[in-house]
Structure formats: structure tokens, C-alpha cells
Design goal:
The complex is a heterodimer of chains A (about 120) and B (about 110). Chain A is mainly beta. Helix content of chain A is about 0%, strand content about 50%. Chain A has strands spanning about 5, 10-15, 20-25, 30-35, 45-50, 55, 65, 75-80, 85-95, 105, 110-115. In chain B, strands 2, 4, 5, 9, 10 and 11 form a six-stranded mixed sheet that branches. The termini of chain B are far apart. Chain B has strands at about 5, 10-15, 20-25, 30-35, 45-50, 55-60, 60-65, 70-75, 85-90, 100-105, 105-110. Chain B is built from no helices and eleven strands. The model of chain B has no long low-confidence stretch (mean pLDDT about 95). Classes of the chains: A mainly beta (about 120), B mainly beta (about 110). The interface of A and B includes residues 58, 94 and 104 of A.
């Protein structure tokens, strides 16, 4: 059963703590992405990776970090430097490296709440 | 930077009425994609338009890409309760490469039975 999995579904964190969100895909996709969604808002790109061991900042990278040690995995760390981390976090992947016409497949998301 | 704007933000319709959402980009797009997100769910790809003036249909859904490739629309004929959700348009974030999409803020479709 191919797809993208994200865990956990709900996550609660105290202020000042770092937290890591998991994203795994078995679609053999090269590119992976992290988006943030706030209520009533569209999706905003945090980080993306086109290939293993390489990643790029998106539009709102401050306060976040990522790694891409394996093709299948692209974890996102929300650090204490992120001023307003409460949001719905969506991971996505796409097949091709060079094509901007690529469909993105989304995971089910992680809803992070900072207490 | 590139901006993608969608209107309206919310649309209430009676079941059976038609629905249209409009998308405008500040730059010319090589393609535009449409996604649907059900309440509590994640975005799911609907379609991609590539050619100037392109029109594509999926059952009751009609998608259009403008001649200048800067705007697009999604029209749903005779809405059903299963159409409830948020519809997003998205364009490539930059001119080329798989470096993500810029999404509009979406149109929330609310259907009253």
C-alpha cells in the first residue's frame, strides 16, 4: 500500500521545546516538501528537498530545520525559535526532479498545538 | 514574489446550485493545479492545466486556464453534499524545477441541503 505517512496525527508541545514531525513515503519520489497551513489560509512552503542529502528553504523557513538522510524520509523539526508554531503541518512528495508540472501527493498531516 | 489570489474566500450554496471559484496569479504560469481538501483532511490533487485557454472537465467539474496563463477557474455544476471542502489553486513557485507550489488561500464551499 503506497503513500505518505505522517506521525503523530496530533502533537502537543510546551513553549521552549523543540519537536520533530515525521514524514515517510514509499512512492519512490525524489522530491519532498513541508507546508504549513493556518486556519483560513492556504499552504505555505517551509522547506523542500529535491534529492537525498540536499534541501532548500521555502518561503517561511525561520524557526524550522529538516534533514534528508534517506530518500523515504524527510523529518521536520520545529524549534523554540519559531514564534507561532501552532498549525497544521503537511508533508508532500512528487516524482520528478526537473518538472514544475509535477503533481504533489500529501500526507494526512500533523496538527501541532503549543501549550 | 509570486502571489496567487483566490476568490471568494467562502461560498454558501444550496444543494443543486452551481459554484465557481476564481484564481489569479501575479505572474504568468507554466501550469496551474487544483486541489481539494475535505474538512479535517489533506489536499488531494484534482487536475493540472498547461495550455493557454485549456478547458478540462471531470464529471460536474469544469476547469479553465486563461489565455494569458495568469488566471484559472473551477466551476461545479449542480453541487452535491460530497462537494463540500476547500478548493485550492496552485502554481509553480518559481519558473522551473521541482521547488514547490504557491497556493492560493482557497475557497471554502459550504452546501446547505
Amino acid at each position: 500500500d503506497g503513500g505518505i505517512t505522517q506521525s503523530p496525527k496530533y502533537l502537543f508541545r510546551k513553549e521552549g521545546q523543540n519537536v520533530t514531525l515525521s514524514c515517510e513515503q514509499n512512492l519512490n519520489h525524489d522530491a519532498m516538501y513541508w507546508y504549513r497551513q493556518d486556519p483560513g489560509q492556504g499552504l505555505r512552503l517551509i522547506y523542500y528537498s529535491q534529492i537525498v542529502n540536499d534541501f532548500q528553504k521555502g518561503d517561511i523557513a525561520e524557526g524550522y530545520s529538516v534533514s534528508r538522510e534517506k530518500k523515504e524520509s524527510f523529518p521536520l523539526t520545529v524549534t523554540s525559535a519559531q514564534k507561532n508554531p501552532t498549525a497544521f503541518y503537511l508533508c508532500a512528495s512528487s516524482l520528478q526532479l526537473a518538472a514544475s508540472t509535477d503533481t504533489q501527493y500529501f500526507g494526512p498531516g500533523t496538527r501541532l498545538t503549543v501549550l | 514574489g509570486q502571489q496567487v489570489m483566490q476568490i471568494p474566500q467562502y461560498q454558501h450554496v444550496q444543494e443543486g446550485e452551481d459554484f465557481t471559484t476564481y484564481c489569479n496569479s501575479s505572474t504568468t504560469l507554466s501550469n496551474i493545479q487544483w486541489y481539494k481538501q475535505r474538512p479535517g483532511g489533506h489536499p488531494v490533487f484534482l487536475i493540472q492545466l498547461v495550455k493557454s485557454g485549456e478547458v478540462k472537465k471531470q464529471k460536474r467539474l469544469t476547469f479553465q486556464f486563461g489565455e494569458a496563463k495568469k488566471n484559472s477557474s473551477l466551476h461545479i455544476t449542480a453541487t452535491q453534499t460530497t462537494d463540500v471542502g476547500t478548493y485550492f489553486c496552485a502554481g509553480p513557485r518559481t519558473g522551473g524545477g521541482a521547488d514547490g507550489l504557491t497556493f492560493g488561500k482557497g475557497t471554502h464551499l459550504i452546501i446547505q441541503p
